[in-house]
Amino acid sequence: QLQLVESGGGLVQAGESLRLSCTTSVTVFRFLTIGWFRQAPGSQREPVATVNANGRINYADAVKGRFTISRDTAKNTVYLQMNSLKPEDSGVYYCNVNALSPYPGNAWGPGTQVIVSS
Question: In whole angstroms, what is the distance from residue 56 CA to residue 105 CA?
């Protein structure tokens, strides 16, 4: 079973930056999408940034121009660089891999907390 572990969350002030990391337990050879989602208190989980198998990247409108998703395949890690953070970016950030191989299925990490103070 594919396992994901996020890191890099924390408490920052508005305008500052954070970089989240998500490492998979094994190399994902084939996938449908890899990405980051977030969930604020009282809200549903929503996509922040995703990349599909063709390399196409989608960003939520609220983060375009501030967040960047990237992958280091040699390290089995996907990153989310978050710049110019705003209080409304606060929430629990989850890594997601919709994998085809070696373990087909939709995998989620346990999440990492991001708090942006004003």
Answer: 20
